[in-house]
Design a protein that fits this description.
The chain contains 13 helices and 22 strands. With 442 residues, it is an alpha+beta fold. The chain has four domains: 159 residues, no CATH class; 103 residues, no CATH class; 79 residues, no CATH class; 60 residues, no CATH class. The strands form six sheets. It has a seven-stranded mixed β-sheet with strand order 4-3-8-11-12-1-13. Strands 7-6-5-2-9-10 form a six-stranded antiparallel β-sheet, with no helix packed on it. A three-stranded antiparallel β-sheet has the order 16-20-19. Helix 4 packs antiparallel against helix 10.
Length: 442
């Protein structure tokens, strides 16, 4: 009974978390010193130190320039100076609002939701996107995996959602939930593709759990090279659902194989210097120069392959060693890309293409794990938006010459449909399509 109660409490806590917006630090691996913000869709209120800075809202045709100013933030709107403040916040007035961020020296990105800017040490800016949880998940899916079939995106959404719910407090001490880099999950843009949004919506309410109903760890990597790795061979903990499994589905994909050449002197010198291997011992040298991995191993002469991978910047630990006697070089013939634990993304792409169901693919990579379906998830919501997206995707196929920005209007249409349904308004397509707020003048 106690175990059942614990499971119920764990699931209830995770479901409650999805109802709240999440806070994601943007450009977390870059030094942002100057930020220009423009507006692709909708209108925002601009707040400085908690008070509204402008009498009117900012939107298309206006831009906000933010620079550090002695531990504060100097603000200009369309070249008009508005002084310096301790913090700034742009708050969206509608669900379908899009910010365009242009930090100096960094690539442009667009995001939905709100934006908070605060000064950091060294004249840098900290940017935090406050956004709906599922909108964040869709952006992660777009950033983390490629493909064209909705089940690919559904699978990525499930494992990304599971990870996020397990790690909601990862950066709590810093004032946000996640960063946008691989330390957490990549979140390099809002979701701009309706097919990716389709997969994310189809996965609504789905997470991965163990036999006790607890959310599992869901690591993933680009390509396993033909066999995934045990969790304890890469990290410390041996988890029952992160077992090494054969993965022929990862063969003959973009990241299946790689080769790296290293001089013999550098290779042997590395082991002698860093790991105290006696390279005067011919048997040890032979092991170093003719190491083979027909199946995955964890160590070479007792040295973790993860350490070797890091020191030589290799794509994976799944490699074998041979010698080119002519060039006196060591040839590393490797397979796969990434740590190898959990789900292989390219293996997943192949399995979806071969017709495997999304849940069987998850069970293949996460041994004994189960897909948990949230009983409170609004299935009519999923069916409604999946149908709308299917129609939008079909329309886009017939509008190949249309610019991306105009194609992005599907987002506003979809969100406004959702807003109306949440207000329990009757949806009559022929009438709603004529409403002014469905149209955005690009």
């Amino acid at each position: 009974m106690k175990r059942l109660l614990l499971i119920v409490l764990l699931l209830a806590a995770s479901l409650a978390a999805t109802a709240d917006p999440v806070r994601v630090r943007l450009y977390s691996n870059a030094k942002v010193t100057t930020l220009n913000i423009s507006f692709d869709l909708g209108y925002y209120n601009l707040y400085a130190d908690g008070s509204q800075l402008l009498e009117d809202m900012v939107g298309e045709g206006r831009s906000v320039l933010i620079r550090p100013d002695g531990g504060r933030l100097h603000v200009s709107v369309n070249s008009d100076d508005y002084g310096s403040y301790a913090s700034l916040r742009l708050e969206a007035t509608d669900t379908a609002c899009i910010l365009c961020l242009n930090p100096e020296g960094c690539k442009q990105r667009t995001y939905e939701g709100n934006l908070e800017v605060t000064p950091m040490k060294g004249g840098q800016l900290q940017l935090v996107n406050e956004v709906e949880f599922e909108t964040y998940i869709a952006g992660v899916v777009q950033s983390e995996i490629y493909g064209t079939q909705s089940d690919i995106f559904r699978i990525q959404a499930i494992i990304s959602r599971t990870w996020a719910l397990r790690n909601m407090k990862k950066h709590a001490s810093e004032g946000y939930n996640f960063c946008d880099y691989v330390h957490c999950q990549a979140y390099q843009n809002r979701c701009i593709r309706p097919d990716i949004m389709m997969g994310a919506i189809q996965s609504s309410g789905e997470t991965l759990v163990d036999s006790l109903g607890a959310l599992i760890e869901t690591p993933f990597h680009s390509n396993s090279g033909g066999q995934t790795a045990n969790s304890e061979d890469v990290w410390k903990a041996a988890l029952p659902y992160l077992r090494s499994v054969p993965d022929t589905f990862s063969y003959r994909m973009r990241q299946s194989d790689w080769v790296k050449t290293v001089s013999i002197d550098r290779w042997l010198g590395y082991f002698a210097r860093k790991h105290k291997v006696d390279t005067a011992d011919s048997a040890l040298v032979d092991s170093l120069l003719h190491f083979q991995q027909p199946t995955r191993k964890a160590r070479l002469l007792g040295i973790p392959l993860t350490r070797i991978r890091t020191d030589f910047q290799l794509k994976s630990t799944f490699f074998s060693v041979s010698v080119d006697s002519v060039t006196q070089s060591v040839i590393l013939h490797g397979h796969g890309y990434g740590h190898g634990v959990g789900l292989s993304q390219e293996g997943t792409i192949r399995m979806v293409g071969l017709g495997y169901s999304y849940d069987s693919i998850l069970r293949h990579y996460y041994t004994g794990a189960l897909v948990h379906h949230d009983p409170t998830a609004n299935h009519s919501y999923v069916e409604r938006y999946a149908g709308q997206l299917a129609r939008i995707i079909e329309e886009d196929k017939n509008k190949k010459t249309q610019t991306r920005s105009k194609k992005d209007d599907w987002l506003g249409r979809l969100f406004r449909l959702r807003d109306r349904e949440e207000r329990e308004e009757i949806y009559i397509e022929s009438e709603q399509d004529n409403e002014k707020d469905w149209q955005y003048e690009w």
